[in-house]
Specification:
Length: 105
């Protein structure tokens, strides 16, 4: 596994992953983990919670994610569109939730 320096908006994070794409997804996951529990209000619909989390995540993350194996601001940085990565992360979380419900039942 390689070490990646992830930068986006106010986020600076060092993660280990097999490739830059997986590192970007892991950075999204780590960021959203910090945001989602704050909105664990039972009176809010799942759609409202998702909208709030996405907006809060967007305030932390920039439009693009930059991942470098050299360091923060590295000239080797690979770029990912943050919205695309959040959408992919969300699809993975939905798939995991469905899988868990099948395994539990």
């Amino acid at each position: 596994m390689a070490k990646y320096y992830v930068e986006s908006g106010t986020l600076q994070l060092i993660v280990q992953a097999d490739d830059a794409h997986k590192a970007a997804l892991w950075a999204i996951h780590r960021t959203m983990q910090q945001i989602l529990p704050v909105y664990d209000e039972h009176c809010l619909s799942p759609e409202t919670k998702a909208d709030i989390a996405f907006t809060a995540g967007a305030m932390v993350l920039g439009e693009m994610m930059f991942l470098s194996e050299v360091g923060f601001g590295g000239s080797d940085a690979v770029r990912f569109n943050t919205t695309d990565m959040v959408i992919e992360w969300n699809q993975l979380m939905i798939a995991l939730t469905k899988l868990e419900s099948v395994v539990v039942h």
